[in-house]
Amino acid sequence: MKQSITVTVNGQSRSAEVEPRMLLVHLLRDVFRLTGAHVGCDTTSCGVCTVLVDGTPVKSCTMFGVQVDGRSVTTVEGLAANGAMHPIQEAFKEEHGLQCGFCTPAMMLVATALLEENPDPTEDDIRWAISGNLCRCTGYQNIVKSVQFCAEQMRQASAGAPS
Amino acid sequence: MFPSNFEYFAPTTLDEALGLLAEHGEEAKVLAGGQSLIPLMKLRFAAPAVVIDINRVAGLDHLEESKRGRGFLRIGALVRNATLERSDLLADRYPTMATAAPLISDPIVRNQGTLVGSLCHADPQGDFGSVMLALDGEVVVKSTAGERRIPIKRFLDGPFTSTIRPDELAVEARVPSPEGRFSGTYLKLERKVGDFATVGVAVFVSTERGKVTRAGIGLTGVGATNIKATEAEAALVGNRLTDATIDEASRLAAAAADPRTDVRGSADYKRDVVRVYVARGLQELSGARAA
What we know:
The complex is a heterodimer. Chain A contains 5 helices and 5 strands; from the N terminus they run ββαβββαααα.
């Protein structure tokens, strides 16, 4: 039997009628048409389906859509605001943090959650944060550089911001 | 991969959850972190007719020390592994558990997964089963009929089998508070982050005037359940941690292991890793606070 749910997706309230067995990643991709959350391994291993639920990274292939009823979900589509790229997107562009792009949405979301908790991460902190996300191009070096670049830019921006 | 269809309940109180389990227990599964259950349902190894999601139940997310009796640590059923990983209380007082927490799967899985759920899943490759065995923990289970406290050794019954009844909900894990000088650690051999343990070893000792008063050794991934190396523990109690006693205990722990040859290594290799890791863990403890 389908259940009615209401979710705040990228700041907008969205409602749907879903079977309880529908996974969050399919709710996002097939119902809400947000295809930035990818399906990779589908076995909770690769992390390319990662989205933020109430700000925390979760593998959306390992959560049911009904579980986010009343909660807030952020996908890669929610990073840019008012036509401007998010600093993490700028950083991935600047430091060539992507090759094929398949793991990129998840990498950027995990990075934003890390920087929210820890604005000045060490390289080890960054490698820890992305250790649940696979990059089949093995481009980890530039992903780490991108996150470092983003952290630096965000620290400079907040230091220069009027208090 | 799509799980079989099921009826979904998301109770908000413990009474409501226990009522649902009393009604649907035999055909129901409890959903907490879901990081083991949902993969099993997607593979259709599990196809429950009813899923009872306890994530909205109030009062299950406590992580605190109780001073009752000799004191114990209480870990509620909704305490996430990420919380354990960041806990100062665990780092100060429960080093075996604090060391194990960051080695469970990967950071994203730890944001959801729970210790209590992992114990109920009873995977012999689960890391927390060994930690609980080393620390002589217990699981508190509730039903509409009342409450039971089950020592972890009796709780873990076989591969993916625990002694919890279908109408019961595991609400909390408990670990006795350490006394005297104590130290503990968890060593895990894994091929990469997120893989199951090839071998895992949990060790704990408390000492008084240099002699071991309590010893705990739990083994991961080398038997049909997590294994408590009781003979190795007994060999340490009353003695100092010396090269000779550590050697004897690690030999006895390896003898208690019952590993199988698989893609992660041969049985002989895993048994020897148990010996090396128990020795390495105890050496580390003898140089730490317990010395």
